[in-house]
Input
Amino acid sequence: MQLIEDANKEALRRILEGDPVLIDVVPAGQVIPALGERVLLHAGPPIEWERMCGPMRGAIAGAIVFEGWAADLEEATALAARGEIAFHPNHHFDAVGPMTGMTTQSMPVFVVENRRFGNRAYCTINEGLGKVMRFGGNDASVLKRLAWLRDVFGPALGEAIRSVGGIALKGLVARGLAMGDEMHQRNVACTSLFLREIAPALARTSRDSERLAEVFAFLGSNDQFFLNIAMAMGKAIMDPVRGIAGSSIVTAMCRNGTDFGIRVSGTGDTWFVAPVEMPQGLYFPGFSAADANPDMGDSTIVETIGLGGFAMAASPAVAGFVGAGSASSAALYTKAMGEITIGENPEWTIPALDFAGVPTGIDVRLVVDSGITPVINTGIAHKEPGIGQVGAGVVRAPIACFEQAVRALAEKLGGVA
Amino acid sequence: MSDTVLNEVRKGFYLDSVALMRLSRRIAAMPGIIEAALMMGTPSNKRILQDAGLLSDIGAAANGNDLVIGIKAHSDEAARAALAEAVSELETPRRRAAEQTTWRPRTIRAAVKAMPDANVALISVPGDFAAAEARKALRRGLHVMIFSDNVAIEQERALKEEARSLGRLVMGPDCGTAIINGVPLAFANRVPRGDIGIIGASGTGIQEVTSLIAAADGGISHAIGVGGRDLSQAVGGITTLMAIDALDSDPRTRHIVLISKPPHPDVARTVLSRVAKSAKPFTVCFIGAENADLPPNAHFAPTLKAAAEDALGGRTIGADAPISVPASARRSGIVVGLYSGGTLCAEAQLILARHGRKVASNAPVPGSRSLSEAGDGIDRIIDLGADEFTRGRPHPMIDPSVRDDMLRETLKDRQVGAILIDVVIGFGAHADPAGHLASILADASRDGPPIIGSVTGTEADPQVRSRQIATLERAGVLVAPSNAQAAELALAACRP
Output
């Protein structure tokens, strides 16, 4: 008992001491050596091709064509189905990816360094809304945008970030929370703050004003741009929390569209997996719940650090996705998450809750004891490959993951506790 | 009729996208509408509207600061009606949220965080889970009142031992009543603060004694419930002994009243030897015992009323307003008691038996027989709060209707000389138990046996004791100042 309490205190200390700084944008293959030819990282816990959902398969086919491993989507799908592509979770290589979470060697990734602990984490660049690869989109327009990110946007942004010695993220997120972002469904404030901060460096390092305008236009028209930075930040903050003997704190939550998986500090790199749930939400015109794929993506890393659904009170509009949708009900979500977390983050506060810190450090014991499962804000993908995003909403983590984790931790501590 | 697409653009009108999605869903559900959407006119949103077949030239001309309303309908009329509804919704001020928005903690941990000064947890969950929750509360430094029943006696003992080592009280399990620092917990009455401390193994016993003391202008320092099994051999009186320690050292408590069924003899010895060590006067009310071997600082009280009187320094309750049964209402026969309060039921049995009556009950006290041995000429005193009546339904103090049919039958029974009832009010109890009883009596014939009862509770209770009494009297019930006196009146009524 005391061992667990002490281990969790250490876990919380490491979360709160994390000092994430965005230091670069580089091709994924440059920082993840395992990302060679025909190797592809995906969101969520490990999964084989046969069990992958539609949008995941669609995204994979698109990524294969993007990397030039196949000439078209059909050939790409056949290649993947024949087992000629190696699939691994992003989480196994210090990375995270939203929704389908495609990461391949030539895709540019944000590099976030946790300066307190020296570790780094990676995430690809947000493509914008509509038909995009993270939601399973894979047509020519999707691949064209990815090529532009690779050839123009990524190098430009990387150079600008390097030129200012990196951008500290903790304070930026604190300001974003005060402006109505929860960093999962809402990133408009942080995106704007980021643009404001990086604009001079982008201008200074640019040699082509037309390209610079394109870069600004892309940043300025994508309210969710900051999400992927927040995700790399979340991964960089949580990785040093892994492997604390006895700790019952969740270090990762993610989904691959088929399974939901969590990792817990005291049980190391074991995934506790259960079938993923369907989000409740609202749909774009022309789509309904019948089109929706179950929950997907590594983006739940932001809930793991106390943002997203856990910070719903900062972002009342997001509560409109479920129930009667009153803005005042948003606080109930954050308060409820306080029942399954061991602390609050004093640097990330919510004005509407009298500046209470976001609930931080999910304890699997508290989840199982209370029956309250983490609440996650999420986008909704079409269940068929190639179509893309159809809505957004809120979903719960399945309790079975947490029950397995509690049992595994108890077994592990059997001789000690 | 052909499908029609209607667009309207509101220049420079911004609304949050989630709000717009909610509104879109509402408009799309209107009659005759195929699809509808309200979106800000950004390029990517216009693409979505285009793909959904919702964009006309009007909407296509909008820019990112404009709101586009796109409606596709089976008819022009339906489209116009939906557009009018959308526009009116956009212009209607927000209504107040109807859903509940106050947060209530779901766990003891969160409750303690929200209320760090709290020092008592009241636990009312199914019995299988009560001990685990109680343990969580104890480990957070709280005293615990366990309202739940069906907790194994081994668990009760273990919990109370753990609590003792932590210096915390476990009131219960099956503890219905407590008043701590003037705060009534569970089934309890609002009584004035004063210098009489109560320790009770019985909920209605505590309620009757505290209410009688309040009616006589006395007051209560604390009333500590211990649970019906605390004085059993298996539990050994752990909470009772701790409660005596607490009240003995409490400067606001001058006099201490112990209320219980007769304890196990070993436990009685331990408890009474602790009483002997106190400098304070005690009243010992072991309901069902004839007497007890008491130390000099303790008096024995055979009834709840006697206990209240002793605690009040020997004052007689109800002496100022003696009541009697009118001669016309008297008839020979048996007494039937229909009780909601278990200890009130026990007290009535004892009083009848001490006057030489033969008494049967489903909850017999020493000297009474079980209901299966009831027969001609034997009084029947029923505890309607016993398990056989409450399985799958609320306790009669919450829902008095369990008494209704039995009361109607008894009123028609020619062998019955008097009917005894109780009305228990206070927190947790039915909002108007006297009114409920009166409604049953209003339909009954007037020539039945007299109904005699009392009201356990105070003027400060939500139901107001005097109003309950007035309601009963208007319905023809003879209301005594205490349950003991009601039982004596019933005896008198059966002796023409």
